[in-house]
Amino acid sequence: MTVDAARASENGRPGSTEPATATTSADAAERFEAARSRLTGLAYRLLGSWAEAEDVVQDAWPRWASVAATGGIDNADAYLTTIVTRLALTALDSARVRREQYVGPWLPEPVSTRDDPTLGAERAEALDLATLLLLERLSGPERAAVVLREAFAYDYTSLAEVLSTTEAAARQLVSRGRRALDGGRRQPVSPADRDRLLAAFVSAAQSGDLAALEAVLVPDAVAVSDGGGVVSAARRPVRGAEQVARFVLGVLEKFGRGVRSIPVIANGETAFLAVTDEPDPQPVALWSLDIGADGVRGVHIVRAPDKLARVTAQALSQIGDASGRL
Question: How far apart are CA 231 and CA 251, in angstroms?
Fold first, then answer.
């Protein structure tokens, strides 16, 4: 979206023609802070990293403050969404170069959504770890188009403005992005069925029942673990129900002693945070399941310490000493 387009839009939608007036620094800061959670939720969906998302949003501040001081913007939301989207797409290009040299598989940084289920968006879409991983298949513009359309309910006119393209091209970006994702997206599952499959997985894992664990997995299940080259983790995805079941039980056997498991709401879904069972708990891993109508499709194990710091601090502050075993 151009600055002129931002001046002529209302809440990210075209239509406002009121003249702009200069904004005081205090007012500019207040409006920016009011939009911060939404902007960070957007940048996070585009980057898969909360730390990088916060950096992008902070980089948007001087641009916003400078333009707001001149009275050059009628609509803060439209302007900030455009700037953050563009900054995030630039950051994504750099991130993808780094991920090509990443040690082992890369997984998104998990975030707590206990207090903000939609993470600043209109809908809790493009948020779970499995979908964020699928979004890596898309080009930057496709990813932005899908995220803004599905999570932030942008119409195609507004989408075209943010992406500096035509409405027809914006529709094509969304369509191509959705087609690329459809092959990997799970079939919708009811909350009751999800809870049932989650409970069956946990029960089988806790009891070490290989057959029961294999039964809850789909035949082409995949397990991915991310140690970031810092801690021990499988260097390649593990594929197939039997292999995944054996892998899960092996991980629990190797790393489960002296560890307690805390149920958390991460990326909109129930996950399990494993921490050391000591007065000053340290994070060991976050386990997240990709559950579809046909069973558990994926097991995601985040072990990279830098990706666990934030979600661990939030979980321990909110849950206290609630504990258990995965």
Answer: 13
**Model confidence over 80-99: pLDDT tens digits?**
999 999 999 999 999 999 99
pLDDT tens for 108-154 read 999 999 999 999 999 999 999 999 999 999 999 999 999 999 999 99
CA distances from 212 to 186, 237, 289, 306 (A): 22, 21, 16, 33
Q: In this predicted model, what pLDDT tens digit does every residue of 27-70 receive, in sequence order? A: 889 999 999 999 999 999 999 999 999 999 999 999 999 998 88
Asked if residues 273 and 310 have their Cβ atoms less than 8 Å apart, the reply is no
Q: Are strands 283-292 and 295-302 parallel, antiparallel or unpaired?
A: antiparallel
Query: Strands 295-302 and 217-226: what pairing?
Result: parallel
DSSP letter at 112 equals B
> What are the pLDDT digits (tens) for 291-325?
999 999 999 999 999 999 999 999 998 765 445 55
3-state secondary structure of 256: coil
Domain with CATH 3.10.450.50 in the chain: 191-319
| Alpha-carbon distances, residue 276 vs 272, 303, 310, 314, 324 (angstroms) | 13, 13, 16, 16, 12
193 neighbors 268 (Cβ within 8 angstroms)? no
Residue 237 has pLDDT above 50, yes or no: yes
Task: Work out the angle between the directed axes of helices 305-319 and 50-69 (0-180°, nearest 10).
Answer: 90
Reduce the DSSP state of residue 110 to 3 states and report it: coil
Radius of gyration of the chain (CA): 21
The answer regarding whether domain 191-319 maps to CATH 3.90.180.10 reads no
Q: Do 303 and 233 meet the contact criterion of CB atoms below 8 Å apart?
A: yes
Give the amino acid at 308: L
Give the list of residues 6+ apart from residue 260 with CB closer than 8 angstroms, or none.
274, 275, 276, 277, 281, 323, 324, 325
Per-position b or e across 159-182, b if 16+ CB within 10 A of its CB: bbbbbebeeebbbebbebbbebbe
Torsion sign across C-alpha atoms 203, 208, 212, 218: positive
